[in-house]
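Try it yourself: sequence plus guanosine-5'-triphosphate, in.
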Amino acid sequence: MRATVPNPFDELMEHAKRLTDGDTREQIVASIFQTSRQICQETVTYTKQEKRYETEKLDRIFTSKIWGFPIMLAMLAVVIYITIAGANVPSSLLAEFFGWLEGYITLLFQQLHAPSWLHGILVLGLYRGTTWVVSVMLPPMAIFFPIFALLENYGYLPRVAFNMDRLFKKSGAHGKQSLTMAMGFGCNAAAIMSTRIIESPRERMLAILTNNFVPCNGRWPTLILLASLFMAAGYTGGWKTFATASVVVAMVVFGIIVTLTVSWILSKTALRGVPTHYTLELPPYRRPKIWDTIVRSTLDKSVYVLKRAVTVAAPAGVLTWVLANIHVGDTTVLAYSAQLLDPFARQLGLDGYILLAFILGLPANEIVVPILLMGYLSTGALIEVDGLHSLKQIFLDHGWTWLTALNMMLFSLLHYPCGTTLVNIYKETKSKKWTFLSFAIPTAIAIVVTFTTAHLVQWFGLL
Amino acid sequence: MTEAKLARLSDANPGERFRITTLKIEGTMKRRLLDLGFVPGSEITVLQKSPLGDPTAYRVSHTTIALRKEESDHIYGERIGNE
Amino acid sequence: MNKREYTIALAGNPNTGKSTLFNVLTGLRQHTGNWPGKTVIHAEGFFTYKNEEYRIIDLPGTYSLYSNSADEEVARDFIIFSKPDVTLVVLDATALERNLNLALQVLEMTDRVIICLNLMDEAKKKGIVIDIANLSKKLGVPVVPLAARNKEGIEELLETVARMVHGEINTTPLVVAYSRAIEEKIAKLLPLVKEVVGEEYPARWVALRLLDGDTSLLHALQHHPHHFLKEGATYACHCAKSV
Ligand SMILES: Nc1nc2c(ncn2[C@@H]2O[C@H](COP(=O)(O)OP(=O)(O)OP(=O)(O)O)[C@@H](O)[C@H]2O)c(=O)[nH]1
Ligand SMILES: [Mg+2]
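Structure, out:
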C-alpha cells in the first residue's frame, strides 16, 4: 500500500496492527497472571500463617514514621563506630610493624652499599607509599565492608531507598539513587555502573554527576584518620571513638545534603525535567549467612586494598619520591609546585602540599594521604614514622590546625572523582561534556565550601 | 459492582484491601505495573506509607512493591474493606 | 561423538538468586545482594560436568520479557536469537505467583527450559509447601528445587541439565490460554508469521508480540537474525565483571 515493493515484514506488521486494539497487552498479562494464580492455588499451600508477614512487621518498624530515619542514622553511626573502634589497634600495629621492618630493610641496603637514590626510590618511595596505604586502609575497610555486606544481604538497602524517596523526588532525582549512592560507599567507579538500574537518562545523569559526594573506600580512611587525629583530640577512650564517629557521620550526612542540593539545582537548570515513574520492590528480609558473608567480604576487600596498594600506591610513592628529589635551582620540583599552589590553597584553609597531594592523587583517592606525608617528610629532616602518633606530629609541624583537617576532609568528600571513576563516567555517558562536568561541578563545590569555612572561621575568630 | 464509584488506589489507607478495575495510565509505566501484578482483577493490600508520606508500599501477589502517588493515582478499583 | 560446548542462560525476576547460582556453578564471584538490580552487567562463566563443557550466562533480572527496557530486550534477544541449549528460569519459591509470570513467558519462547525453584530454604521457614511434581506436570518442564546459597539441589540440577542437552527429556510447555478474541487474532496471524519469519522462531509467541505492538522485536528479527546467531557468543563478553 505504502511502499512500491512491499517488504513482507512491513506487511506483517501492518496486518498485526489492524488486528490489535489498545488493551491487548493488558489482556495478555491478565491471562498470564490468571494462569499463574491458578497454578499456585493448586500447587502451593501455606502452613504457617504467622510467618508469612514477618517482613511486613519488620517494615512497620524500619520504615515507620517515627523510627525510619533515626534507625537509618543509627545504623550508619554504629557501622562507622565499630569500624573506627575496631581499626584503631590493628592500624597502629601494622604501622609499627612496617616501620620496624623498614629499619631492617634500610640496614640491608647499607650493608649492600646500595646507592642512596636506590634506597630513596625503593624504600622511602615505593615501600612507604605501599605500606602506608595498607596500614591506614586495610583495617577500617576490612571491618566496614563485611558489616555493610551483612546489611545489604539482609535486605536493608531497599528500605533506605523507600524512606528517602521523597527527598530525591523533591530534588528531581530518581528514588533508586539511594541504591547507587550506597554502592558508592564501596567504590564510586563501580557505583557509576550501578546507575544502570535508573532507566531515565536524565535521572541517571544526576546520579552519575553526584555519586562522588558519598565517600568511597579510598576516602573513608582519610576521613577517619583526620577526624580521629584532630576532631576528637580532646577526648580519650570510648568517647574519642564516639567523637570521631560523629564527625565522620556528619561528613556523610553533609555529602547527602550536597547530593540533594546539587540534584535539585541541576534538575532546575541543565537537566531540567520531572521525575519519571518508577517502582521499587522491597524484597523480604533474609537472614544472611553471617560467617560466610563476613569471611568472603573481608577477604575480597583485603585483596582489593592490597592490589590497589601495589598497582597505584607503589608507583605513586616512587613518583612522589622522584619529584621530591629532582632539584631545580635550590628547590625540588615537589616543593616548587607546592609553593606555586600555596597562596590559592591557603584561601581554602589548606596548604600547597595538600592541594598538590589531591592533584597527584587523581588516579586514586587512597594515595592522597601517603603523597602528602611524603611531601611533608621531604621538606625536613627525615623522621622515623613509627605508628600513627607521629603522623599527627608531622601535620602539626606543618602548621595544621583543626581547621586544616576539617577542610581537608571537606575537600576529600567533595572534590572531583578519581581517575577510574572519570573513565567509567565517560564509558557510560559517551560524552566529553558530561564527563568534564562530573569533574568540574564537584571541584567547584569543594572550592566554594572550603573557602567559605576557612573564611567564616577566620571571621568569627574561632581559631 | 457499581461502575460509577471507582476509587483511586492512592485514596486507600494502610491496612485496606483494594481490587483493581482499571489502570488509567499509558506507556511503559502501565506495562511495568502490569508486570508487577497490578492487573485488573487482582487484589492489593495497602501496607504502609514511607516516613515522609510518600511513596506507599503495597502487597501484590505476595510481594511488596512501593509506588509513588503519581502512579497510584491512576490505578482505579474498589476498596474492599480492611484486612 | 564430537565434543561441544553447551550454552545455558539464567533468566528470572530480579533478586531471585541468579548470580548466587551462577557463582555456585562456575566458582566465580559475581556480587550478590538482597535488592533488585544488583547485577547490571551480565556475566559469562564456564564449568564442566561429567566431562562436558558448559558456558553459562547470568542475564539481568527482569520482571517480564516484553521489551519495556534495555535489560528485558537483552534477555529476550538472548533467548530468541542465541538459542541457548537450556534456559534456567530461576524463581523465588516464596513469591511463586509473581515469579511464574516470567516463567510462563519463557515457556512461550522455548521448550528447553528448566525451572529452578530457588530459595526453598526461605520458603520452608515461612511454611510454604510446594507440590513440585504437580508443578512440573502443569508447566510441562522439569522443576528442580534449590537453595543455591546453601548449595542444595545443585547435583540434581546439573543432572537435569545434562539430560536435557542430550535430548533425554521431552518437554510439553504449558500453553497459556488467552481470551477468545486474542486467540482468534493469533489464529489469523499465525500462517503469515510462519511464512515471514520462518520456523526458526516460536510463531505463537511472535504473533502475540505483534498483536502487542512490539515493533522492536520485528526489527530485531528483520535485521539481526543471522548476525545474532553468530555474534551471540560475543555479546556477553563483559566477562564476570560486576559491581
Ligand atoms: N536464603 C537464601 N538466600 C539466597 C539463596 N540464593 C540467593 N540468596 C540470597 O538472595 C539475594 C539475591 O541473590 P542474587 O544472586 O544477588 O540475586 P540475582 O537474581 O542475581 O539478583 P539481580 O542481580 O538483582 O537480578 C542475596 O542476598 C543472596 O545471598 C538461597 O538459596 N537461600
Ligand atoms: Mg545478579
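One thing you can check immediately is this: The domain at 3-82 of chain B is CATH 2.30.30.90 (SH3 type barrels.).
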